[in-house]
Specification:
Blueprint: E1 28-37, E2 43-44, E3 52-57, E4 62-76, E5 99-106, E6 109-115, H1 117-126, H2 130-140, E7 163-168, E8 181-182, E9 188-194, E10 224-238, H3 240-251, E11 256-269, E12 274-279, E13 286-294, H4 333-336, E14 339-346, E15 349-356, H5 359-369, H6 387-390, E16 397-400, E17 422-428, E18 439-452, E19 457-460
Antiparallel strand pairs: 1-10, 2-10, 3-9, 4-7, 4-8, 4-10, 5-6, 5-9, 11-18, 12-17, 13-16, 13-18, 14-15, 14-17, 18-19
Length: 461
């Protein structure tokens, strides 16, 4: 039906009155849910034997990246004790919490390499909506994990001699973009390294009473191993006519480009209460810089923090002693707020123009970076972070370096390819020095392109 029938040329035929047949995709022959097993072994332990999980994903067809999940069994290998206790294994985070590094490769080319992987993954989990985070937990641990301070009845322990199957989607930008990936020309290799700390993602048994008797040596174990590792993913097969067109394009010198977002992570020591951190990274499109803080956990404080690990605690100075999660604490900005002055400098540009001076400002910039003021598209309360959690163990500062906010356009990040120094300047609160953090975790987010050719792949960063 032609638009000429309408008096107003801005009118168009609504879908309820449009009786055209929907678009089809007859060139799609079939979809298969496939499995790819880990190579090099079937048993993995953090302190002995093999720690590196490696998967090769190769086929003649296309990978649907949205369906890819890493799956494995957590096995409680505890020995029995004389009291006859079950000695349960208690994970504290979903499945990503066991891995300290993740790499994605294609044809020998490193596409993504994320250090402190479990902490980076946990941080981006906080930026999801509560419902989406809950779905990830159900898929990963089949339990309700309340990281704001769980108690024994809220944690699903794995009994001695039993196993639990868990799944999670790795935090790779190439697997988060919407395009199918041609495994014929870009086969993938995924490497995951187990954290060398055997208690990185489980409650550590303790003989003292600091856990209210719930996690004693007799009731809890730190003995486990990972088995039956595999990848589940959907493979899409297209007909030979369309496949031949892709083949001709690539073999004649053409290319397929896949834009994606990736993350560069590092932890640096904080010296003094007024510190400057200098970073040097060659990136063409730097989109965001994330800063968070770490401090050694004090398990004797109230409430007991048996669930706190380096990867899931994004430290705020209000955490120590009178934790907000344990009661009502007066908020004194000049005395307890972690931020006194905070600013990022890239070359001669300052972000923001005037330094942040409070945690409230930090959350404003966090919300603005994700464009959450557009209430009807992304609800303003979509973060899985409450006010108390943000001022306790979910504190993250974000510096948005895009020229256009909110992913309206691609490749609008700052160019730091020519040696521009990235400098984080911050003054910490000094009223009580023992509250200050010990380390700063920096994550650089950047846009890159994977260029697929007939005989090789290339990463343009």
């Amino acid at each position: 039906m032609s638009l000429e029938i309408f008096k107003d040329m801005n009118d168009e035929l609504i879908s309820h009155l449009n009786y055209k047949n929907p678009r089809t995709a007859s060139y799609i022959i079939e979809r298969n849910s496939c499995s790819f097993h880990a190579i090099g072994g079937n048993v993995y332990k953090p302190t002995s034997g093999v720690r590196l999980l490696r998967f090769n994903i190769a086929a003649e067809d296309f990978l649907d990246p949205s369906t890819l999940r890493i799956m494995f069994d957590i096995v409680n290998t505890a020995e029995p004790v004389s009291t006859g206790s079950q000695r349960n294994l208690y994970p504290v985070s979903p499945a990503h919490g066991w891995f300290s590094r993740a790499r994605l490769l294609s044809r020998g080319q490193v596409v993504e390499d994320i250090s402190q992987y479990n902490r980076v993954h946990e941080m981006f989990n906080m930026f999801k909506s509560p419902g989406a985070s809950e779905d990830d937990m159900l898929e990963s641990m089949l339990g309700d994990y309340k990281t704001s301070g769980p108690v024994i009845k809220e944690l699903s322990g794995i009994p001695r001699g039993e196993r639990q199957t868990v799944l999670f989607k790795p935090l790779f930008g190439l697997l988060s973009q919407s395009k199918y990936i041609s495994l014929k020309y870009s086969p993938l290799t995924i490497e995951l390294e187990l954290d060398s700390d055997e208690y990185a993602n489980i409650i550590k048994p303790n003989s003292a009473s600091i856990y209210d008797g719930a996690y004693t040596m007799e009731a809890t174990t730190g003995s486990f191993e990972i088995q039956n590792c595999m990848i589940r993913a959907d493979i899409i097969k297209i007909d030979s006519e369309l496949q031949n067109k892709y083949d001709d394009h690539l073999m004649s010198g053409g290319a397929i480009s896949l834009p994606y977002t990736t993350y560069h992570s590092q932890v640096l020591k904080i010296l003094g209460t007024s510190f400057t951190i200098n970073l040097s990274r060659s990136l063409t499109y730097l989109t965001r810089v994330y800063a968070s803080f770490l401090r050694a956990t004090e398990t004797t404080m109230n409430p007991p923090n048996f669930w706190t690990k380096p990867h899931n605690c994004f430290y705020h100075t209000l955490r120590i002693n009178n934790s907000l999660l344990g009661g009502n604490v007066p908020y004194y900005r000049d005395k307890y707020d972690i931020i006194q002055n905070c600013q990022l400098q890239i070359g001669s540009k300052l972000i923001p123009d005037y330094p942040m001076k409070s945690s409230s400002e930090a959350f404003y910039f966090l919300k603005k970076a994700f464009n959450l003021n557009t209430v009807f598209n992304n609800h303003v309360h979509s973060f899985n972070i409450t006010a108390r959690e943000y001022l306790d163990h979910k504190f993250v500062i974000v510096f948005d370096t895009e020229k256009i906010n909110g992913h309206v356009a691609s490749f609008t990040g700052m160019n730091v390819k020519n040696g521009e120094q990235i400098t984080l300047k911050m003054d910490l609160q000094t009223a009580e020095l023992e509250r200050n953090p010990e380390d700063c975790h920096i994550v650089l987010e950047a846009e890159q392109v994977l260029e697929i050719k007939g005989s090789y792949v290339r990463v343009a960063d």
